[in-house]
Design brief:
Helix content: 40-55%
Keywords: NAD, Oxidoreductase
Largest sheet: 8 strands, mixed
CATH architecture of the largest domain: 3-Layer(aba) Sandwich
Structural class: alpha/beta
CATH topology of the largest domain: Rossmann fold
Order of helices and strands: EHEHHEEHEHEEHEHHHHH
Number of strands: 8
Bound molecules: acetoacetyl-coenzyme A
Site (Important for catalytic activity): 140
Strand order of the largest sheet: 3-2-1-4-5-6-7-8
Distance between the termini: 47 Å
GO molecular function: 3-hydroxybutyryl-CoA dehydrogenase activity; NAD+ binding
InterPro entries: 3-OHacyl-CoA_DH (IPR022694), 3-OHacyl-CoA_DH_CS (IPR006180), 3-OHacyl-CoA_DH_NAD-bd (IPR006176), 3HC_DH_C (IPR006108), 6-PGluconate_DH-like_C_sf (IPR008927), 6PGD_dom2 (IPR013328), NAD(P)-bd_dom_sf (IPR036291)
Radius of gyration: 19 Å
Number of helices: 11
Pfam families: 3HCDH (PF00725), 3HCDH_N (PF02737)
Amino acid sequence: MEISKIGVVGAGQMGSGIAQVAAQAGYQVVLRDLEEGYLERALGSIRRSLGKLLEKGRIDPGAHEATLGRIQTTLRLVDLRDCDLVVEAIVEHEPTKLELFRELDSLAKPGAILASNTSSIPITRLAAATRRPERFIGMHFMNPVPLMELVEVIRGYLTSDETTRAVLEVARRMGKTPVEVNDYPGFVSNRVLLPMINEAIQCVMEGVATPEAIDQVMRLGMNHPMGPLTLADFIGLDTCLAIMEVLHRGLGDDKYRPSPLLRKMVEAGLLGRKSGRGFYRYD
Ligand code: CAA
């Protein structure tokens, strides 16, 4: 299964990062979103990111321009019809993803692999919206995509070995280390990470310590690069809540119940870095 052209649907933080690492690896990339403004913003952030990598000597000047030259942007989904692999990175909302995958399935070429960057929606359920569940897989990148080494590769119930092998190879060519896991709520990354973040939020609610103190404990005491509340702001509190809800619904145990403070902050529009305020302020 030869992969040379990769489509990315959704040009947000994750989608633009995926498009960037794919283009850096030499793949032709078609990046699609719904508005020209989103695509321009994505290209801006890819340029900035490549600029940083160039500054640090991690890529050479030629690679900077060549990477940008391999990224084509579009508003039309049909422009992804000749891609060998399409990675979806749109809003974390199941009905929207299902609708997109139905459409992608009908226009992508028969051999193409469809992948989702979902952080917690079951891959098997998304795959069932298509007529190619054996060529459907989860490719869960970590934020910030250009810097983080992991790609969590999630096999759906019907994902074939051939599809898995092809996607592991793509992830490696992108300079990432893929880790294969099965399709259970939250996979591994978020099943382990989010309950820790949720517990840190519960500590704030109960007045155990300030957000700064909690983050300091985890940074200095456990050598985490970011404290859990800084990380929650970075991921987005709405995304954190959505993941906790998936864990709670899917696994049932009360230990996955979202903290009431998390819920209240999301209701108040305090979503973290992207809204300018979460546990911290970003002016
Ligand atoms: N591209 C290129 N360079 C980037 C970048 C990007 N996208 N983002 C940041 N950088 C640069 C910064 O600009 C900075 O450059 P300078 O040194 O010139 O200022 C450099 O990388 C290092 O950044 P920082 O000094 O700010 O901070 P750092 O050394 O702590 O590294 C980090 C940053 C890699 C993000 C680190 O803090 C870290 O590993 N944090 C944890 C991230 C994490 O846990 N991610 C997973 C989130 S969960 C998820 O994604 C899954 C999900 O489903 C929710």
